[in-house]
Every structure is written in structure tokens, then in C-alpha cells.
Known about the structure:
Order of helices and strands: EHEEHEHEEEHHHH
Number of domains: 1
Strand content: 15-25%
Strand order of the largest sheet: 3-2-1-4-7
Helix content: 40-55%
Radius of gyration: 20 Å
Number of helices: 7
Distance between the termini: 19 Å
Amino acid sequence: MPTYPTIYFDIETGPLPLGELVIPPFDPSQVKLGNVKNPDLIAEKIQKAEENHAADYIKNAALDALSGQVLCIGYRIEHDQPAVLCSDADGEAAMLRQFWALLKPTNDSRYPRMVGFNVKPFDLPFLFKRSWKHRIVPPYWLRNGRYWHDGIVDLREVWQLGDSRAHGSLAAIARHLGLGEKAGNGAHFHELWQTDRQAAIHYCLRDVQLTQQVADILINSY
């Protein structure tokens, strides 16, 4: 069954508000000491790790749907202008409903083709888990038993060509293909979201643009 239309997408996440975060207690046994044997150096390393424990947890909270939230979803349908859905208007739940509404099959039962980068291990699971949090049911067709629907194309998988050891971020692959640079660093997106909302939206739009440009080379040129 043909898929139609193609939707390119990318999500940006951030940590939950501090009041909702459950920071686990510090565990000294988890501190990596390497070959350090000196008791004073060990104590110093553990103390430093304890001081940084909360900050480190918050820094990584955006990578897990249990401790993070979706801040915005960038998308482009075929050759329409790219757009961004933001969680600050009516909240994360409303944004998720808007996005899932884009994925309804057409009247002749054709499903849209979903194209993104690293979306199978990260973006889609994150969207599903945050949707479940809000009691939102994602489109049924996206999953096929244990697997994702055939209409979902993960450009990272395409790039790897079956070699799971083949690395490469969207930024690195876009640079390699001569497509230019991203508009910033995703690791700092949450800070950008807090300080310069327009720049954050521009960053998300640029990622969607690069995603489509990479797709044009890897899958749309044949």
C-alpha cells in the first residue's frame, strides 16, 4: 500500500519542571574511580560527584520521557512550509494531540510516510510515552506488533546500511553531504528555549530542513 504524504519531523525535549523531577538519591558506589587508590583523592572525587549529582541529573533529564518533556515538534509536509508546534501555548498534551492529528490516514486509507533522524529509538518512543502520560492514544498504525510501521523511515538506519557500528549525527552527516551546519547544539536546547524562544524555534526549523535535505539525497533521489 503506498504511503502519502511524506512528513519530515524532529522533536526537541527538555527536563521536566524542577517541581516534577524526582532526583534519585546520590549513590557513592556509582562513582567511577578508575585506578585511584589514594583515600584522600577517592574522598575528593566522591564529594565532587555528590555536589554535581543534581545538576548532572537535570542535564540528562531531557533524554528520558520519565524525567523530560517535549518542548516543540518541528515538521514539514511534503513541500509545504515547515512549521513548529510548541508546548508553551496550551501545554504539552495539546501539542501532542495536534501532531498526532497530522498522521491520520487519507480517505483512501493511505498512511503518511514519516521521515526523521534517529526517530525509532528516540523521537517516536518519547512521543508515545509522553502521550501515555497525558492519556492520549497515538495513531494505531504507527506500530506493527513489536515493530514500527514500514512507512516510518529513520535516516540514521539508512545511513548505517546495516552496520550498527556506523556512527554519525545529523549534523555530521549534513556537513559530510555539503548541506551546511545546524543552527546550534541540541544539548543546549533547553537553555535556548528559556532565553531566546525565536532562536529555539529557528533551531528546530533548521533541523527539519536538514532532515529533508538529507532524505533527498539518501532516499528521495531514486
